[in-house]
From TrEMBL:
Domain spans labelled Thioredoxin: 3-167
UniProt keyword terms in alphabetical order: Oxidoreductase, Peroxidase
Superkingdom to which the source organism belongs: Bacteria
Protein EC: 1.11.1.15
UniProt organism field: Haemophilus influenzae
Residue ranges the record marks as coiled coil: none
GO CC terms: cytoplasm
Any one biological process term the GO annotation gives: cell redox homeostasis
Designated name of the protein: Peroxiredoxin/glutaredoxin
Active site per UniProt: 49 (cysteine sulfenic acid (-soh) intermediate)
Principal EC category: oxidoreductase
Listed GO MF terms: thioredoxin peroxidase activity
Presence of the UniProt keyword Transmembrane helix in the record: no
CDD domains assigned to the protein according to its UniProt record, in alphabetical order: PRX5_like
């Protein structure tokens, strides 16, 4: 897998389902005259993708916009129905979900790999890139190691490249419950302090169990803090 820095992204038409209609979306529509961040991953609903990769890009989207990024795309070799379901499940309103169902874009990027050992077939290697007017300026490609490494394609690494002077706040996740007045007060306090955060709504988020496990592992504790 080699970098595509300095080269144009592949010219591909993505078949998407919007409402009850099929809508073709081209790479020209996505990239021309825009500054775009792309992060690509092995599959929708998979652990690292859902618990870390996607949420952090969604969380930092307002910061990226401040530094001139027009859109953030997540690309996966999945069909549009799977990607639409994942988008609905994740509530990641700051991210554009792109289904590379046939793997054409991923293959053109040189990132199509075999995941037959997991029963996945052909999928994307994990990477991220900054694209300006259709030309790849910078790529962060995960090292060629066994498994699914996640070391350099994360949102914080991209932000350090794009705006090295930016002071990144620690990632904040807040577990809330519908109708909880204390949760509302906690969220308002974070808003008032200008702090971005990830809200995990208990009972509404399909990945609660996965994210709770991730939360525990980060803090080496079995405690889950709820406001």
């Amino acid at each position: 897998m080699s970098s595509m820095e300095g080269k144009k992204v592949p010219q591909v038409t993505f078949r998407t389902r919007q409402g009850d209609k099929w809508v073709d979306v081209t790479t020209s529509e996505l990239f021309d005259n825009k500054t775009v961040i792309v992060f690509s991953l092995p599959g929708a609903f998979t652990p690292t993708c859902s618990s870390s990769h996607l949420p952090r890009y969604n969380e930092l989207a307002p910061v990226f916009k401040k530094y001139g990024v027009d859109d953030i795309l997540v690309v996966s070799v999945n069909d549009t129905f799977v990607m639409n379901a994942w988008k609905e499940d994740e509530k990641s309103e700051n991210i554009t979900f792109i289904p590379d169902g046939n793997g054409e874009f991923t293959e053109g990027m040189g990132m199509l790999v075999g995941k037959e050992d997991l029963g996945f077939g052909k999928r994307s290697w994990r990477y991220s890139m900054l694209v300006k007017n259709g030309v790849v300026e910078k790529m962060f490609i995960e090292p060629n190691e066994p498994g699914d490494p996640f070391k350099v394609s994360d949102a914080d690494t991209m932000l350090k490249y794009l705006a090295p002077q930016h002071q990144v706040q620690e990632s904040i996740s807040i577990f809330t419950k519908p109708g909880c007045p204390f949760c509302a007060k906690a969220k308002q306090l974070l808003h008032d302090k200008g702090l971005s955060f990830e809200e995990i709504i208990l009972g509404h988020d399909g990945n609660n169990r996965e994210r709770t496990c991730s939360f525990r592992s980060c803090y080496c504790s079995t405690s889950v803090y709820r406001w």
